[in-house]
């Protein structure tokens, strides 16, 4: 597995890289994911949406049903609070920095951003931990039923609507000057085939 190979390679040169085998979500527990028959594309579509079901609702019956798998989930707002907010800042500075370290996060979580982003926004943890987020927005149908006790939820968006909805919310967020975080839509998978080798002993200290 690529991430485990990266973990070993980074450790060998004294760099810290930790691969957490869990999904990020708006709450902890387990999530049902689907293998959506795209192994040739390194399973880019592995998500909580069954692609065949999404296509069928759009009138396309040509997709093979996905295979279910239960995946452990970590509530991202809690993880950021525990691992990033009060972390020990290194005393040794690599490079010419005057304003301290920056935290950058790539987010490509196959439509779970509709649960994760509101959670890290409204808990307040986002503005205190992350400087820049970039990632892909997914135009999947969203059907979140209303919680009978809290009244929360009740979000229903079709294809086309979901992307426009989240894009507008992101613009509103970026317009707020009281938060250091900036969020940008930028999907880039080129690292998978860029031909760059893993770091080795000659890279120590860089």
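^ structure tokens above, recovered residues below v
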């Amino acid at each position: 597995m690529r991430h485990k190979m990266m973990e070993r390679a980074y450790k060998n040169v004294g760099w810290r890289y930790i691969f957490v085998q869990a999904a990020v979500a708006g709450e902890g527990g387990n999530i049902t994911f689907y293998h959506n028959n795209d192994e040739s594309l390194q399973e880019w579509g592995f998500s909580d949406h069954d692609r065949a079901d999404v296509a069928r609702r759009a009138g396309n019956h040509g997709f093979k049903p996905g295979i279910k798998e239960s995946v452990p989930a970590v509530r991202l707002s809690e993880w950021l609070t525990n691992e990033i907010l009060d972390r020990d800042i290194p005393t040794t500075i690599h490079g010419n920095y005057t304003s301290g370290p920056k935290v950058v996060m790539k987010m490509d979580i196959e439509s779970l951003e509709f649960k994760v982003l509101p959670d890290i926004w409204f808990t307040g943890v986002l503005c205190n931990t992350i400087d820049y987020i970039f990632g892909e927005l997914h135009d999947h149908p969203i059907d979140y039923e209303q919680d009978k006790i809290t009244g929360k939820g009740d979000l229903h968006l079709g294809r086309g609507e979901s992307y426009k909805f989240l894009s507008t919310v992101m613009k509103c967020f970026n317009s707020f000057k009281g938060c250091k975080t900036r969020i940008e839509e930028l999907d880039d998978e080129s690292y998978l085939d860029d031909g760059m080798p893993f770091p080795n002993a000659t890279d120590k200290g860089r």
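The helical segments are 2-12, 51-57, 76-85, 113-122, 125-129, 161-175.
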